[in-house]
DNA sequence: GGTCAGAGCGCG
DNA sequence: AAAGCGCGCTCTGACC
């Protein structure tokens, strides 16, 4: 028995074993209240790969009940991958999968910010079970079994060399990690957050009152503009006031304002910075998202076309660096933070088998290595050249430097240039493990068709060329960003498994706010594209640091086998994730 | 009363 | 000095 499919039947649940040969076992009915213990029992005795419709929907309540599982297969996420994957081909298995439109659904609506009191409603509450959120995939056991069979058939029909099997395992592991990150939460020092806000904005004002510092700086701006009522919070109205004051700008954005000499500019930029801090991550955000010493954002695995995660609620992917000092371990615990140095160019070097680029990255700093190779003169140039190569820069610093990179690293550049060419021609591209880019939409195709007609106008042709170039830049970046996301998923999955193997600490040293599954164990607390933070008991700091390093090496091997490309980490263990 | 696109800026 | 990928969130102002 390899798999156990979980789905709804009647008022409760049904568990159905599926063997390696696809043989379907007898259904075991389980009531709502008994699902956590039924899953925990099987996890202990047989450890199947759990097959379910939508991980957050099923797994979040399990975590709340103290149940962790090792492996799953998320039918919704896997469907999204297989539906578009070029490696699946166009045979009957692929057609059957693609015609199951009900599985081509976005994740369920994000839950509201967590309630101030613990014990938020769960799947097992009658109310929630009776009225599932709209937008989700089917959840019945019959629908799940049928879809699982379609997916197995589609995968069997895929090119054997494709990485799809690894991709869907990694994607599903990511779904488990995402649910666990929300359940455990990121340890957040609300007092430190308040201190940072107060240092920048002044003390917390009453509702509807602007913070002291914003009032002062706003007054400075208005004085310098000679406009006592200048509306600083409305870009279109502010723009008119600026132009009236002789500042010739086309927008009120920072990069344009910075180019002008006027006494109002400096305080205005400062005002905008403070305004951003207040509205995006001020006291209201703190009230909404931090409870019980934990920040619990909602992550959306696979939420970006490239395979990166998105977030929905809480803004997990946009925490400003100036608030990072508020990330603080519980007493007796420590934060192990790690990020990969230049993940995307390293991934590109490995994909392309570019030996020169691999050699340049053999130290800790790929950009320094590129300077040593003689391709460019300074580290800054190396950075702009590499970003320009991956994003498709045509002008500016990046555009100027890319040709030099093309001479120094021809294999790597050929890979991204080919991806751009295919995209510009309306084709699709795929990541290393086989996630394919979406096909062009109808509007794009129509524009290309219009430009190729005999009577096409110059405007039609210009539009078609611009759209083709834009799509080329997208597919150019897709292969790199998407494969980097796959590396990160493998890193997460490996790390999650290693952390689960470490011994729990005694109950008197528990971090209770991390929830029943993680209170006594090191656990992932944060993930952002190429960085992780693990919250760990102090005594396990070294073991966790080793696990983070080992997982990074394992991720490189899992994707690329034996490659000369290294994926070095910046790693530190301390009470705070970042110095204040 | 509500929805919606754009501007602007935070992150990688 | 500023153009080149992928996002989410908040605010504003136009609109129904």
UniProtKB/TrEMBL annotation:
Residues 320-540 form the DNA-directed DNA polymerase family A palm domain. It is an enzyme of class 2 (transferase). InterPro entries: DNA-dir_DNA_pol_A_palm_dom, DNA/RNA_pol_sf, DNA_polymerase_A. Keywords: DNA replication, Exonuclease, Hydrolase, Nuclease. GO terms for biological process: DNA-templated DNA replication; double-strand break repair. Gene3D superfamilies: 3.30.70.370, 5' to 3' exonuclease, C-terminal subdomain. Its EC number is 2.7.7.7. It catalyses: DNA(n) + a 2'-deoxyribonucleoside 5'-triphosphate = DNA(n+1) + diphosphate. GO terms for molecular function: DNA binding; DNA-directed DNA polymerase activity; exonuclease activity. Residues 105-136 are annotated as: Disordered. PANTHER family: DNA POLYMERASE I, DNA POLYMERASE NU. This is DNA-directed DNA polymerase. It comes from Leucobacter chromiiresistens.
């Amino acid at each position: 028995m390899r798999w156990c499919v979980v789905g709804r039947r009647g008022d409760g649940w049904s568990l159905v074993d599926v063997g390696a040969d696809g043989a379907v076992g007898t259904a075991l009915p389980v009531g709502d209240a008994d699902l956590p213990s039924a899953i925990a029992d099987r996890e202990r005795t047989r450890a199947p790969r759990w097959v379910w419709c939508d991980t957050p929907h099923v797994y979040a309540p399990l975590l709340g009940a103290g149940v962790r599982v090792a492996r799953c297969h998320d039918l919704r996420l896997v469907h999204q991958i297989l539906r578009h994957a070029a490696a699946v081909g166009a045979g009957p298995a692929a057609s059957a999968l693609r015609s199951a439109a009900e599985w081509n659904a976005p994740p369920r609506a994000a839950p509201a910010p967590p309630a101030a009191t613990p014990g938020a409603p769960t799947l097992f509450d009658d109310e929630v079970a009776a009225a599932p959120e709209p937008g989700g995939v089917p959840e019945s056991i019959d629908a799940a079994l049928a879809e699982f069979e379609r997916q197995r058939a589609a995968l069997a029909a895929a090119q054997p060399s494709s990485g799809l099997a690894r991709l869907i395992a990694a994607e599903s592991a990511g779904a488990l990690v995402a649910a666990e990150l929300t359940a455990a939460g990121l340890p957040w020092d609300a007092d430190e957050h308040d201190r940072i806000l107060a240092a920048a904005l002044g003390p917390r004002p009453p509702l509807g009152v602007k913070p002291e510092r914003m009032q002062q700086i706003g007054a400075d701006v208005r004085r310098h503009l000679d406009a006592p009522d200048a509306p600083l919070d409305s870009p279109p109205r502010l723009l008119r006031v600026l132009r009236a004051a002789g500042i010739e700008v086309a927008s009120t954005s920072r990069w344009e304002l910075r180019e002008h000499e006027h006494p109002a500019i400096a305080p205005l930029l400062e005002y905008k910075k403070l305004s951003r801090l207040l509205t995006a991550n001020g006291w209201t955000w703190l009230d909404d998202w931090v409870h019980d010493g934990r920040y619990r954002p909602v992550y959306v695995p696979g939420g970006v076309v490239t395979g990166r995660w998105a977030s929905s609620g809480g803004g997990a992917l946009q925490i400003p660096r100036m608030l990072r000092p508020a990330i603080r371990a519980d007493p007796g615990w420590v934060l192990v933070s790690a990020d990969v140095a230049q993940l995307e160019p390293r991934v590109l070097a490995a994909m392309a088998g570019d030996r020169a680029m691999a050699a340049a990255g053999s130290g800790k700093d790929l950009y320094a290595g590129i300077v040593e190779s003689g391709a460019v003169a300074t580290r800054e140039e190396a950075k702009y050249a590499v970003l320009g190569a991956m994003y498709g820069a045509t002008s500016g610093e990046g555009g100027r430097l890319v040709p030099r990179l093309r001479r120094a690293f021809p294999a790597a550049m050929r890979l991204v240039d080919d991806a751009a060419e295919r995209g510009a021609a309306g084709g699709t591209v795929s990541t290393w493990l086989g996630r394919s880019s979406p096909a062009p939409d109808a509007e794009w195709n129509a524009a290309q068709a219009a430009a190729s007609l005999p009577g096409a106008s110059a405007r039609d042709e210009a539009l078609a060329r611009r759209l083709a170039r834009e799509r080329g830049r997208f597919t150019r970046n897709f292969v790199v960003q998407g494969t980097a996301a796959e590396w990160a998923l493998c890193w997460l999955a490996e790390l999650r498994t290693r952390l689960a193997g470490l011994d729990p600490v005694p109950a008197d040293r528990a971090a209770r706010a991390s929830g029943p599954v993680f209170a006594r164990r090191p656990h992932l607390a944060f993930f952002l594209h190429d960085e992780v933070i693990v919250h760990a008991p102090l005594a396990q700091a070294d073991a966790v640091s080793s696990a983070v390093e080992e997982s990074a090496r394992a991720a490189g091997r899992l994707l690329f086998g034996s490659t000369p490309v290294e994926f070095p980490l910046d790693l530190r263990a301390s009470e705070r994730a970042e110095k204040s």
